[in-house]
Each structure stands twice: as structure tokens, then as C-alpha cells.
Amino acid sequence: MCKFHIALIRPEGSIHSEPFREIAETLQFGLHSIGHAAQIGENTIDATASNLLLGAHLLTPDESHMVPAGSILYNLEQLGGASLCPAYYERPRGARCGTACAISRSGKP
Questions:
Q1: Least trusted range by pLDDT, from 18-22, 44-48, 80-84, 104-108
Q2: Could you give the residue ranges of the DSSP H alpha helices within the chain?
Q3: Among residues 90, 101, 15, which one has the least CA distance to residue 60?
Q4: DSSP-derived 3-state class of residue 84
Q5: By C-alpha distance, which of 63, 72, 68, 25 is closest to 48?
Q6: Distance CA 44, CA 51 (A)
Q7: Is this model's pTM higher than 0.70 or not?
Q8: Is 103 contained in some domain?
Q9: What are 38's strand-pairing partners?
């Protein structure tokens, strides 16, 4: 069994990341259903877990440097969109990145 932390990124005062909550709950349910531990947090990282970030495109360039290597950036934005700053494309270095991530019963992404 693996331990996952699903992090909702929400800048102070922003309501635009609230739709990510339903996706986080779906991920949590799916991970639980195959035997993994999964928790949801807001603007938090768990150093003892594999971190899945929803809304990583909302991080500032300085904040993006705090994302631990091996984190999973769960992309929810259209790549190449005008709303993505150039720093967003630098974030995947050291992270597992994609528009979807399948976690098997063995815990291997």
C-alpha cells in the first residue's frame, strides 16, 4: 500500500480552484478502492507521501521550486494556453507530469 497526498493549489482569495475538489475526491476514492492511503490537503505538501498536485499552474515561479522531486503534476489546463506562464513548463523537471496518471495496485505509477 502506498500513501498519497492530493494537494489542491489555491492562491489566497481565489475561488477558481474549487472545481478541482471534485477531481481530488475522485482520485482519493479511486486510490482507496485499490488499497492505497490518500488524503486531500489545500496548499500543503506531505513529505512522507507521493504528492499529486491539482492546480500546479497556479503556483508562482518561486513556489514551484518547493514542489518535491517525484511529485505528480495532474495537469488540468490546456497546454499552450495563454494562461500558462513560461515557468509552468519548467516545473516537470524532477516531477512525473501528464494529463492523467494511472496508479496500479502495485503502487507503481
A1: 104-108
A2: 20-33, 61-64
A3: 90
A4: coil
A5: 68
A6: 9
A7: yes
A8: no
A9: 4
What's the sign of the alpha-carbon dihedral 101, 19, 50, 78? positive
- Distance separating alpha carbons of residues 104 and 31, to the nearest angstrom: 9
Confirm whether 106 is domain-assigned: no
Using alpha carbons, select from 77, 75, 76, 78 the residue that is nearest to residue 97.
Answer: 75
| Mean pLDDT, rounded, of the chain | 80
With a pLDDT cut of 70, the percent of the chain lying above it is 72
Does 46 fall in a domain? yes
Give the range of the structural domain holding residue 49, as residue numbers without chain letter.
3-98
Total structural domains in the chain? 1
